[in-house]
């Protein structure tokens, strides 16, 4: 099946249901990903029942679009997404998910320890507007000055 065929299926979803296409592509996960990705781009809600499946598909076949998908999906199970991202050590995605789930301290810790990115840590603390995060950032930079020499 080509990308043209995927477009044709999307253009004719009134004749061939989304569920049927997803089922037919079960043994072709890369094409299933392409189909679901294009469906999501057209309408964030039409394939919402497949958003959990899409997390794994993005992680496997299209990581650059995983974070945008996580940001744009309102139907994505955050716990499942976090589990997948942590298993694969996807730091940026994990930081985003931790923050979205209200665990800003863990997210900031990952930025500081995994990414070692001072600018990103400062920007994150600004975005969160949380005094305790600023205290964590200052404490970390005092305790670990070698990692933060560019500070």
pLDDT below 50 for ≥5 consecutive residues: which ranges? none
Number of domains: 2
Q: Which structural class fits the helix and strand makeup? A: mainly alpha
- Total beta-strand segments: 0
The helicity comes to 55-70%
What is the N-to-C order of secondary-structure elements (H for helix, E for strand)? HHHHHHHHHH
Query: What is the makeup of the main sheet?
Result: none
Shape type: elongated
Q: In angstroms, what separates the terminal alpha carbons?
A: 52 Å
Radius of gyration: 19 Å
Produce the secondary structure layout.
Layout: H1 3-11, H2 18-24, H3 29-42, H4 51-61, H5 66-72, H6 78-87, H7 91-100, H8 104-115, H9 118-128, H10 131-143
Defining key terms:
151 residues; mainly alpha; 2 domains; 10 helices; 69% helix; elongated
Summarize the structure.
The protein is mainly alpha-helical and 151 residues long. It contains ten helices and no strands. It has two domains: 1-90; 102-151.
Write structural notes for this entry.
This protein is an all-alpha fold. Helix content is 69%, strand content 0%. The chain has ten helices and no strands. The chain has helices spanning 3-11, 18-24, 29-42, 51-61, 66-72, 78-87, 91-100, 104-115, 118-128, 131-143. The longest helix is centred in the N-terminal third of the chain and has 14 residues, at 29-42. The relative contact order is 0.07.
